[in-house]
Structure of Alpha-tubulin N-acetyltransferase:
Amino acid sequence: MEVEADLRPILGSSLVRLDSMRIKQIQNHLVYSTLDQLAILASQAANLKGPLTSCEKLVNSDHVVYLKWRYDEERAVSILLGYAKIGHKNLFLNDMEQKTYEGSMLCLLDFYVHYAEQRQGHGKEIFDYILQMEKIQPHQIALDNPTVTLLAFMHSKYSLSRPIWQNTNFVVFPEMFAALNSATCSNGQKAPDGWWRPSTPRRFGGGSNETRWLDSAISGHPSKGHAMSCPVDADQTTEGTLANRANQARARKAHILSSKPLW
């Protein structure tokens, strides 16, 4: 997405962290509108009803956007290449052994690189910048309803190949639970602060002690099935992603209409 202006005095470096305060300080409608348009493209690529990110939402939340851009001196335009939105959420998660965990976790809520700039390393630069600024490891980020393209990205770039789907459509990886179950990981990384295993099952509805197990999750594509140890083998093209998202939507609708409640 192009902006017919030099954004270097406004944004600074080519990788920038934008929280609510920084968004307010920008005070440039061109930046706001272009970022919103980029978010609309992201929603269209994921076949969503509307964008997950907007400057108006960012100002009124504690979410943070990491933006990558560049300035083309020959054409005198600034180009927004891609972005990622993160935020903390309190999650109840189940590992592959159906043990329940609860805690606040950093989540990847939206992630997109412009279709004309994909497969050039911009996505990994953005993700690596998040890891650097937030001081975390790749397995310590939960993915909010990721596409197969994002799962394949995590597999190829960070060797995270066994996604564990939750009933809330968040995805985590076994490496995170390995950190939680020991004082330190094999690489010396500690488990995220604030995480624990509840001593009793979580209560739902009328007070029955039942936990939403992973087996109740809705399957949308092969990596959502119960053979969680299989590496992700996904069609990473735009057409493949759109077709997969459409299949997910149909599967969810059929499940809701024909199945019993998950709990």
